Amino acid sequence: MHTHLKSKKGWLKVADMPERIVLFDGVCNFCDGAVQFIIKHDPEGLFSFASLQSDAGGKLLKQYQLPSDHFDSFILIENGRVYQKSTAALHVVKSLPGLWRAASALLIIPRPLRDAIYSVIAKNRYKWFGQKSECTIPGPEIRKRFLS
User: Between the N and C ends of the chain, which has fewer C-beta atoms within 10 Å?
Assistant: First the structure.
């Protein structure tokens, strides 16, 4: 598994990247909880992670021309395709084993409605769940799934 984002031009070819990368707000307790949930329910290690505040996260935001001035979106880059907000979250659970896949049925709800609910949670996530002063540093076994 690739853990470093490096290339001569600063850009990566999709073939050189992990298949599934989750970008998340690294100081958000709710977002960190979501990442811990994914790690716990992803025994095959399908997902790699980068906080939006990290160098790797910044490079990916730039490469995919995503805003880098606010961190209110959960992002999944899957085989070079970008999913954001509720669509990203539902595509993640769709890849997890077991009953979690059933939640992906919510993809039938129109995206604007799903994202409206997502946006309410995103807007209030610090107030409701708190935030950290810095990103959590995972243990060595999990750290290899985080891009640097």
Answer: N
